[in-house]
């Protein structure tokens, strides 16, 4: 005997839709007691002895029960009767987009979206768990929020599946990381208000260890040069969270009581930190009177190889105070040292590795660094030089240290460099040709209008 399927709640007869493959038990009792099974065929019909075929396709279980009872009553007037669902049907569901193994998978009408995604290997690395779509055969689209389902256990966020469904797992649009004084630190996708309040709500709310006496730390990557900037956002006067909109890959830290101790913070590319997302990228040190940038760096072991020595700064009372770490660390120039105060944050950004291509190209922008690429390959990524660009020999490379180098075929492009393609100036003869060409177009247009009026 086949084992019944596992279900998380009783089947709702008003919601369950019958279809080909469903097995129904027809039970009779009274003067006689007997039962028999009827299977809904591929056309959506079920055969009942003495009655014939009943069309159950698209009917809910409640409708099918009512219709069958009315038909049976005419032929079995002295017997009580009822219909139950003995075995739900099996069908195929398409699971597509950002899952490990997209494809078709068998499902039953008591299966939910999360179980099918699990059979498809689970979510992909950038999958949205909050905007899963279930596309019905009739064109209706149902949204599933599997993150809220996992957090709350509420099955309304994890719908049942039907014949012909397509489960689509899109890519996430806006996700942020939160740490510190919250009950459930982690990375969450935002789909509602997309602000700090929604992020804290998904993280289980503020923890008892949080404090509103210190500002919220927000680390955001600059879209222009890939640097990470820290902003301190204070709580509202009444203790409410600041009304702050989130951007993709923001990193938020809610302050805790322990932060009220006399301390300073170091953020960024310290020794042993390879990625800005590592917890070690933010360190809190006890403040000692007389501390400076140099003494803080000595206490953490110095800066890492990925540090941007020219873009470092001390954040104090929402103001950025630049620090020349190149002179301090590389040249040992103690004049570049800067005293720190209680509550300061020393930010050492990670060095930009992308290559910026700017000027007279078709697609200016930032492109991933490739150690095997030269100037011409990066120009090709940017769509090539435009019609107004100067010659290839006029291209300039500006290194991350600010040094400008002339074009050479074998010139090595270092990480963080910028390629500048200057526009050429039009000669007097070219300007005359452009003016004459424009005048010719205007004259032709006037002639067409005159001819049309005749």
Report what the structure shows.
By secondary structure, the protein is an alpha+beta fold. It folds into four domains: about 25-85, 2-Layer Sandwich (wza like fold); about 90-170, Outer membrane lipoprotein wza fold like (Roll), CATH 3.10.560; about 215-350, Outer membrane lipoprotein wza fold like (Roll), CATH 3.10.560; about 355-420, Roll (Outer membrane lipoprotein wza fold like). It has eight helices and 25 strands. The chain has a five-stranded mixed β-sheet, covered by helices on one side. Strands 12-11-15-13-14 form a five-stranded mixed β-sheet, covered by helices on one side. A five-stranded mixed β-sheet has the order 17-16-20-18-19, with no helix packed on it. The longest helix has 26 residues, at about 430-454. It is elongated. The termini are far apart. The mean pLDDT is about 85.
Taking the alpha carbons of the first and last residues, their distance comes to 92 Å
- The global form is elongated
Helix-residue proportion: 10-25%
Indicate the CATH topology of the largest domain.
Outer membrane lipoprotein wza fold like
Question: How many DSSP H or I helices?
Answer: 8
Report the average pLDDT across residues. Answer: 86
Overall tally of structural domains: 4
| Overall radius of gyration | 34 Å
Based on the model shown, name its key terms.
alpha+beta; Outer membrane lipoprotein wza fold like; 8 helices; 454 residues; 18% helix; five-stranded mixed sheet; single chain; wza like fold; 25 strands
Question: What's the layout of helices and strands?
Answer:
Elements: E1 23-30, E2 34-39, E3 45-48, E4 52-55, H1 61-75, E5 79-87, E6 90-97, E7 103-108, H2 113-119, E8 132-135, E9 141-144, H3 146-152, E10 166-169, E11 175-180, E12 186-189, H4 196-202, E13 216-221, E14 228-233, E15 251-254, E16 263-268, E17 282-286, H5 293-300, E18 313-316, E19 319-322, H6 325-330, E20 345-348, E21 355-359, E22 365-367, H7 375-381, E23 396-398, E24 404-406, E25 418-421, H8 428-453
Parallel strand pairs: 6-10, 11-15, 16-20, 21-25
Antiparallel strand pairs: 1-2, 1-5, 3-4, 6-7, 8-9, 8-10, 11-12, 13-14, 13-15, 16-17, 18-19, 18-20, 21-22, 23-24, 23-25
């Amino acid at each position: 005997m086949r084992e019944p399927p596992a279900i998380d709640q009783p089947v709702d007869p008003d919601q369950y839709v019958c279809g080909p493959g469903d097995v129904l038990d027809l039970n009779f009792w009274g003067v006689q007691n007997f039962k028999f099974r009827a299977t809904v065929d591929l056309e959506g019909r079920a055969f009942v002895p003495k009655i014939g075929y009943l069309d159950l396709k698209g009917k809910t279980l409640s409708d099918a029960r009512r219709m069958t009872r009315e038909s049976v009553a005419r032929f079995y007037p002295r017997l009580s009767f009822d219909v139950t669902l003995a075995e739900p049907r099996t069908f195929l569901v398409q699971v597509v987009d950002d899952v490990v193994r997209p494809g078709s998978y068998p499902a039953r009408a008591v299966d939910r979206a999360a179980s099918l995604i699990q059979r498809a290997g689970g979510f992909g690395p950038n999958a949205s768990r909050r905007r899963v779509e279930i596309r019905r055969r009739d064109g209706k689209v149902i949204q599933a929020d599997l993150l809220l389902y996992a957090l709350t256990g509420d099955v309304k966020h994890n719908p049942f599946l039907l014949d012909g469904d397509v489960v689509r797992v899109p890519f996430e649009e806006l996700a942020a990381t939160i740490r510190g004084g919250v009950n459930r630190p982690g990375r969450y996708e935002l789909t509602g208000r997309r602000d700090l309040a929604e992020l804290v709500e998904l993280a289980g709310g503020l923890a008892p260890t949080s404090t509103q006496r210190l500002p919220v730390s927000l680390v955001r990557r600059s879209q222009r040069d890939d640097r990470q900037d820290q902003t301190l956002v204070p709580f509202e006067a009444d203790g409410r969270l600041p009304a702050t909109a989130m951007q993709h890959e923001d990193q938020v830290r809610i302050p805790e009581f322990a932060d009220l101790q006399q301390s300073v913070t170091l953020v960024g590319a310290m020794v042993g930190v390879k990625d800005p997302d590592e917890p070690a990228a933010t360190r809190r040190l006890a403040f000692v009177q007389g501390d400076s940038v140099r003494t803080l760096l000595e206490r953490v072991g110095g800066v890492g190889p990925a540090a941007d020595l020219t873009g470092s700064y001390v954040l104090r009372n929402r103001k950025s105070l630049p620090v020349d770490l190149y002179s301090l660390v590389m040249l040992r120039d103690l004049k570049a040292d800067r005293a720190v105060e209680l509550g300061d944050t020393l930010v050492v950004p990670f060095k930009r590795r992308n290559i910026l291509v700017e000027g007279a190209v078709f697609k200016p922008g930032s492109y991933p660094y490739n150690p095997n690429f030269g100037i011409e390959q990066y120009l090709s990524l940017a769509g090539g030089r435009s019609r107004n660009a100067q010659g290839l020999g006029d291209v300039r490379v500006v290194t991350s240290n600010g040094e400008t180098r002339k074009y050479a075929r074998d010139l090595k492009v270092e990480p963080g460099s910028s390629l500048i393609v200057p526009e050429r100036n039009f000669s007097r003869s070219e300007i005359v040709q452009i003016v004459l060409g424009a005048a010719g177009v205007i004259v032709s247009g006037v002639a067409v209008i005159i001819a049309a009026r005749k």
